[in-house]
């Protein structure tokens, strides 16, 4: 079978890019090894839609995403669970990146604000007005009112459904085993069951931790990536949850999201272990304890909150500089890769997918993606 574009992976990136391509009349096939939202774009709880403390390179993408998120549910005619609750990044101690206390905070807020993420530096009193439950050690915070949360599973499924409705073929349970290359062009893919699909214009690898291995089948340039399984906990509070906004922390591995009046999601960079043979991740007891201890140190009222679920099964790709690679992978001229989102790819996905589709349809790299090009790993002469 021939298609104009073949996308590998039906997480939020593959589904959203297919939707944009299909609604503009392009013929697109999406091949997914498991099920839609079966990877990092699925699972319990919600994901943060956050510009606060995001790397400067990604802030123009977040600026665009701020415009797209509020209207996505209407465009997809489905609930995305998006809520603009605002985010607060707390700090307690002078630390690299925040040395100088409130003065450092103001400088960070100024920079973020200028790059499209409205941000205010808050002192202790102002933080407590927003989050009365924080511990006395909290000395200030960065407040970004346009940040929020969304239901990642619902959003990804809605995007895949919209892509199908617009004419894309999204084929589940079809792992891609290798790519086919002729000269510097990638001309198709071969599935694990031996089926060949030809691509007239481009093959797009939006398959997260599977991207580097598939690129290697056509001698694509090496990608400085590794696989990780971030830990996600949900806890139940005895009284009303003390957490009112999306909360992050400068010097603790902690992120908190309210899921309901008595339910919270606790994450922040803790990880499980990946079993290569089983192809699955699992939690580690000490990491669960560590993550809960950080939450309780910042919100003492969480002392008697009880753990409801703990999981570390959703593999995510991390990159050497904590930024994704979104580029045509050398030496090919038509293998587009978007991977390495390093635990923060969900929020910017609507923006990146829109730009990826534009790139594929026009042949011109959109300016906001320039900083994520592969050439940043090219040796200095
Ligand atoms: C616990 C956790 C918390 C997170 N929190 C946040 C957050 O708060 N904010 C935020 O912005 N981001 C967050 N992220 C990161 C974000 O969820 C990811 O960056 C994003 O979902 C990646 O989407 P994707 O489409 O690239 O990958 P995925 O959703 O993993 O999709 C890739 C798909 O490719 C398929 N695939 C792989 N190999 C093949 C193959 N060979 N053939 C066919 N299909 C293949 C997989 O089955 C998978 O379905 C979090 C991630 C995790 C795991």
UniProtKB/TrEMBL annotation:
Domain FAD dependent oxidoreductase, first and last residues per copy: 5-359
Molecular functions per Gene Ontology: oxidoreductase activity
Residues annotated as transmembrane: none
Pfam short name (any one): DAO
Source species, domain of life: Bacteria
Alphabetized UniProt keyword annotations: Oxidoreductase
EC number in record: 1.-.-.-
Protein name as annotated: NAD(P)/FAD-dependent oxidoreductase
């Amino acid at each position: 079978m021939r298609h104009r574009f073949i996308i590998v992976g039906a997480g939020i990136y593959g589904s959203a890019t297919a939707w944009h391509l299909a609604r503009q009349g392009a013929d697109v096939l999406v091949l997914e090894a498991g099920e839609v939202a079966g990877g990092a774009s699925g699972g319990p709880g919600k994901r943060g839609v956050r510009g606060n403390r995001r790397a400067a390179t990604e802030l123009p993408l977040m600026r665009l995403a701020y415009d797209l998120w509020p209207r996505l549910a209407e465009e997809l005619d489905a609930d995305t669970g998006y809520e603009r609750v605002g985010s607060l990044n707390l700090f307690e101690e002078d630390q690299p990146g925040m040395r100088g206390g409130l003065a450092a905070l103001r400088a960070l807020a100024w920079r973020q604000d200028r790059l499209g993420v409205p941000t205010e530096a808050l002192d202790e009193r102002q933080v407590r007005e927003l989050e009365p439950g924080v511990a006395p050690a909290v000395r200030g915070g960065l407040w970004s009112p346009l940040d929020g949360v969304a239901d990642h599973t619902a959003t990804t499924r809605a995007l895949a459904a919209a892509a199908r409705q617009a004419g894309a073929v999204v084929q589940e349970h079809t792992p891609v085993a290798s790519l086919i290359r002729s000269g510097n062009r990638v001309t198709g893919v071969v599935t694990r069951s031996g089926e060949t699909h030809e691509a007239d214009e481009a093959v797009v690898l939006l398959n997260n931790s599977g991207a580097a291995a598939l690129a290697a089948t056509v001698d694509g340039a090496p990608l400085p990536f590794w696989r990780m399984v971030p830990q996600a906990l949900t806890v139940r509070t005895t009284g009303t949850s003390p957490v009112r906004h999306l909360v992050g922390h400068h010097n603790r591995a902690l992120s908190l999201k309210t899921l309901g009046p008595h339910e919270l999601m606790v994450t922040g960079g803790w990880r499980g272990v990946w079993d290569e043979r089983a192809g699955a991740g699992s939690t580690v007891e000490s990491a669960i304890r560590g993550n809960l201890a950080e939450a309780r140190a910042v919100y003492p009222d969480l002392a008697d909150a009880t753990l409801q679920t703990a999981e570390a099964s959703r593999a995510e790709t991390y990159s050497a500089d904590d930024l994704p690679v979104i580029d045509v992978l050398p030496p090919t001229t038509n293998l587009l890769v978007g991977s390495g989102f390093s635990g923060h790819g969900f929020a910017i996905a609507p923006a990146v997918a829109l730009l990826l589709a534009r790139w594929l349809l026009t042949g011109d790299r959109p300016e906001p993606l320039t900083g994520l090009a592969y050439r940043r790993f090219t040796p200095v002469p």
